[in-house]
């Protein structure tokens, strides 16, 4: 059994669906997938900040159960927890979505002792067992270096988009509580990522193939579709996500994810068609 943790609002549907499909499609042997999605209503900050819906979660669960009937998706609304522990913190209006802060509430919800947190712009290129089965019994978490941060900040500066948590140890050390306290009182360059790093007692460093934010090699296990720098035809950045299917194929030239993305497009079309069919007819 594999336990995954995501966080996001209603717009995270495409990311979680493509990401989880990549997990099940790249497994070399069947293993049930238990997915926990933290969401919240923070529409006081903007109309887009509304929770993922039960219907969206059910659609993701249905897609996963088609591959393994023992898989499930658990949607957890942490609005109350966020308002109690993180509302109006010094980093609430930071460069990233406030939903990235939700992973710092992980100790306050019912999660298993070992869980793999993934950003929604993650795709598995190889079997997730290569990552999930790593022994972290003596560490709070395992993570790979940030592609740019390891040059610009510190050689062991990690990227928090892929975090294999030892939740039992995290609860004992209080890493999340310390990170939340830091977020509340101090503006940080990379918000929750910086807070987590500064609150860490002990982490396990992973090879870059477990969170490759720029390249895709045959040995890459996790491809992270984060914003990246291109030098040609002129220096510029692109923020191509895996659900931007046409751009993934055109900009990166990837074909290795075609089976996953084709299934995603089919499921997305079905989801949207069902929504249209269930629209009430208004009589004038």
Can you walk me through this structure?
With 284 residues, this protein is an alpha/beta fold. The protein has a single domain, classed as Spore Coat Polysaccharide Biosynthesis Protein SpsA, Chain A (Alpha-Beta Complex), CATH 3.90.550. It is built from 10 helices and 11 strands. The protein has helices spanning 13-25, 54-65, 79-85, 129-132, 149-152, 167-173, 175-185, 191-199, 245-252, 258-277; strands at residues 2-7, 33-39, 72-77, 114-118, 122-124, 141-144, 162-166, 203-206, 222-224, 228-230, 236-238. The strands form 3 sheets. Strands 3-2-1-4-7-6-8 form a 7-stranded mixed beta sheet. Strand 1 (2-7), helix 1 (13-25) and strand 2 (33-39) form a beta-alpha-beta unit.
Largest sheet: 7 strands, mixed
- Low-confidence regions: none
Order of strands across the main sheet = 3-2-1-4-7-6-8
Query: Structural class, please?
Result: alpha/beta
Q: Roughly what fraction of the amino acids lie in strands?
A: 15-25%
Oligomer: single chain
Briefly note the CATH topology name.
Answer: Spore Coat Polysaccharide Biosynthesis Protein SpsA, Chain A
According to CATH, what is the class?
Alpha Beta
**What is the CATH architecture annotation?**
Alpha-Beta Complex
Q: What share of the residues lie within helices?
A: 25-40%
Average pLDDT value?
91
Order of helices and strands: EHEHEHEEHEHEHHHEEEEHH
The domain tally reads 1
Measure the end-to-end span: 53 Å
Please state the CA-atom Rg, rounded to the nearest Å.
19 Å
